């Protein structure tokens, strides 16, 4: 896996872990209403979903981190590349799906799909 794809995937992993932490611990904080669209009255009903989506994001971010470790420090860089590409491909789709399901979150959808999309594009182009 080329360096540019690794850097983009690394930023994706960091973003996923960061957003996952926000979703788990701050989904009810109205400073993040623009990101989560959760009104104060809906915090309790949305809690289970926010907690689970946050855990998924953290898990995908850690998957990318494991993939990067395998690419750079193990004898199986192809395995690491496969994990990274899978995680990034999932978030390309999930970014598109976020936009399909909630048009108001276009910027978030682009943010979710852009770096993983570029990581995959540069992996294919420079592989």
From TrEMBL:
Pfam families: DUF1304. The keyword Transcription does not apply. It comes from the Bacteria. The keyword Membrane applies. Keywords: Membrane, Transmembrane, Transmembrane helix. The chain crosses the membrane at residues 6-28, 49-71, 77-98, 105-126. InterPro entries: DUF1304. Coiled coil: none annotated. This is DUF1304 domain-containing protein.
């Amino acid at each position: 896996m080329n360096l540019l794809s690794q850097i983009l995937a690394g930023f994706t992993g960091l973003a996923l872990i960061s957003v996952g932490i926000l979703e788990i611990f701050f989904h009810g904080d109205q400073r993040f209403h623009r990101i989560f669209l959760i009104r104060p009255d809906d915090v309790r009903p949305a809690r289970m979903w926010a907690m689970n989506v946050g855990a998924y994001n953290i898990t995908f971010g850690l998957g990318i981190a494991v993939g990067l470790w395998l690419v750079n420090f193990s004898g199986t860089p192809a395995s690491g590349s496969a994990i990274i590409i899978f995680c990034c491909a999932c978030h390309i789709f999930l970014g598109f799906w976020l936009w399909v399901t909630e048009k108001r979150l276009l910027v978030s959808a682009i943010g979710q799909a852009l770096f993983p999309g570029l990581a995959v594009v540069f992996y294919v182009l420079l592989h």
